[in-house]
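[audit] Reproducing an earlier prediction to check determinism. Same input, same settings, fresh worker. If the tokens differ from the archived copy the diff job will pick it up downstream; this log only records the rerun itself.
[audit] input (125 residues):
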Amino acid sequence: MKRFTALLVSLLVILSCAAVFATDAIQGPPVFTEEERTEFLEATGIEIPEIVSCEFDCSMCHAGTFDESRSYTQWYKNGNLRQCPVDWTATDYEEERTVTHTYICNVCGFGYTDTSAETRWVCTH
């Protein structure tokens, strides 16, 4: 019974963390007031910086920078066709995939995600 209870509590903690991260990813990075930022930095023991100089500086703690990672979906045909520029008798098709960019602050761990699409033409001859 203790194992079941411990497993249930662990599962609930993991799900609540995932829900918080998913909410942040959908809504984008939150905007914090100067007071909220200062309180956070003091609570975590991070030295309060003087000025933010780069757009890649963390919007939460203003002390770290974002590390980026990317993940890709599989290529799929999006339905676009064109006449091949090399062989006029052939028809090329276009493929597309989604790229998910994840940005995590290297100081406080704050993060968010962004998605974009990539396309490529596939020659059929």
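[audit] rerun output stored. Observation attached for the diff report: The helical segments are 2-27, 34-44.
[audit] end
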